[in-house]
Design goal:
Layout: H1 9-20, H2 24-38, H3 49-56, H4 60-67, H5 87-104, H6 114-118, H7 123-140, H8 165-171
Helix pairs in contact: 2-7, 4-5
Subcellular location: Cytoplasm
Protein name: Transgelin
Family: Belongs to the calponin family.
Length: 201
């Protein structure tokens, strides 16, 4: 990874728009959740986008977070004893977290790319992924979520309805109002196609 210099012109505008999406209040809530979910040994980051990025960058805390949402014995990500120091190992750890989060149920459109976190390109996307993960954990309500359930919104859940055969048969005889009605319809006053209507005064 080559270090990039400052961006100018259009690139700078785009980057500043992305940076404005980052929510510092949301950062506090996510930090609190991660600490409650993983335990105090994960530490606490410096405030702000850069501190949050540096805290999560090597992928270890993210891996611990997703592992904490699974029962013992079925942890999806292997967490190394010592945090990886080599760049490709760190990126690999982040990629493992993303795969595990997707398997947990986070949809692709809510996922950040590894470079969004690693190079700090779009930390708002990282927040979006963590929010989606938290919302899923609260919605599943399987006993693995720790923390205040009000930190995340529950996802809408399927509400399946079962109908008996007789109810389904009755429904076939009902004409929905959006289909209109043919009551009182007649062809009075109609003329054949292409012929002018005779108006006699």
């Amino acid at each position: 990874m080559a270090n990039k210099g400052p961006s100018y012109g259009m690139s700078r505008e785009v980057q500043s728009k992305i940076e404005k999406k980052y929510d510092e209040e949301l950062e506090e809530r996510l930090v609190e959740w991660i600490i409650v979910q993983c335990g105090p040994d994960v530490g606490r980051p410096d405030r702000g986008r850069l501190g949050f990025q540096v805290w999560l960058k090597n992928g270890v805390i993210l891996s611990k977070l997703v592992n904490s949402l699974y029962p013992d014995g079925s942890k999806p990500v292997k967490v190394p004893e010592n945090p990886p120091s080599m760049v490709f190992k760190q990126m690999e750890q982040v990629a493992q977290f993303l795969k595990a989060a997707e398997d947990y149920g986070v949809i692709k459109t809510d996922m950040f790319q590894t470079v969004d976190l690693f190079e700090g390109k779009d930390m708002a996307a990282v927040q979006r992924t963590l929010m989606a993960l938290g919302s899923l954990a609260v919605t599943k309500n399987d006993g693995h979520y720790r923390g205040d359930p009000n930190w995340f919104m529950k996802k809408a859940q399927e509400h399946k309805r079962e109908f008996t055969e007789s109810q389904l048969q009755e429904g076939k005889h009902v004409i929905g109002l959006q289909m209109g009605t043919n009551r009182g319809a007649s062809q009075a006053g109609m003329t054949g196609y292409g012929r002018p209507r005779q108006i006699i005064s």
